[in-house]
């Protein structure tokens, strides 16, 4: 079951939305939502949640109960913190948090071992935690236009990585472990303004 409510003027959702237990795809992009009801966590069959281009600064903790969720987009909202409870959704394979104001990633991000795509472009991220190296299934990693000076040595453990983009940061040095990323280097999908290795 799909519910497509994108490109409207919704400011809120009714608590009764949590009654849609068989819902698999919920599209709420391009609305005026500032919050979500706690009952949204009852959507236990949900596979995709699109919240792109709203006015959200946080998600209810109940979202962590969506244990089948595979794709989440909170692109172009007002988040200043990465919602840490997302780390409990172990089946998630794609996270899109482009155009927010996030400065730090939590250590628990390394728990998302099924993650294949992580798009963090256009935030204010200053540091990537060592735990990022646990994401052995990660294929696409976009950190364009943040405030990074370097990456952790554990980045070299991302053996499935096919595309890494670091354009528009403050990169001065990168770990030599990144030479282990043969898929990225050999396919020319590693994009960086400066290539200095430490």
How would you describe this protein?
There is one protein chain. Strand 8, helix 1 and strand 9 form a beta-alpha-beta unit. The protein has one helix and nine strands. It is globular and about 50 Å long. 3% of the residues lie in helices and 13% in strands. With 198 residues, it is an all-beta fold. The protein has a nine-stranded parallel beta sheet. The C terminus is likely disordered. It has one domain: Ribonuclease Inhibitor (Leucine-rich repeat, LRR (right-handed beta-alpha superhelix)), CATH 3.80.10.
CATH class: Alpha Beta
Shape: globular
CATH fold field value: Leucine-rich repeat, LRR (right-handed beta-alpha superhelix)
Q: What is the distance, rounded to the nearest whole angstrom, between the alpha carbons of the first and last residues?
A: 51 Å
| SSE succession | EEEEEEEEHE
Strand content: 5-15%
CATH superfamily: Ribonuclease Inhibitor
In short:
With 198 residues, the chain is mostly beta strands. The protein has one helix at 182-186, and strands at residues 2-4, 25-27, 48-50, 71-73, 94-96, 117-119, 140-142, 163-165, 190-191.
Question: How would the blueprint of this fold be written?
Answer:
Elements: E1 2-4, E2 25-27, E3 48-50, E4 71-73, E5 94-96, E6 117-119, E7 140-142, E8 163-165, H1 182-186, E9 190-191
Parallel strand pairs: 1-2, 2-3, 3-4, 4-5, 5-6, 6-7, 7-8, 8-9
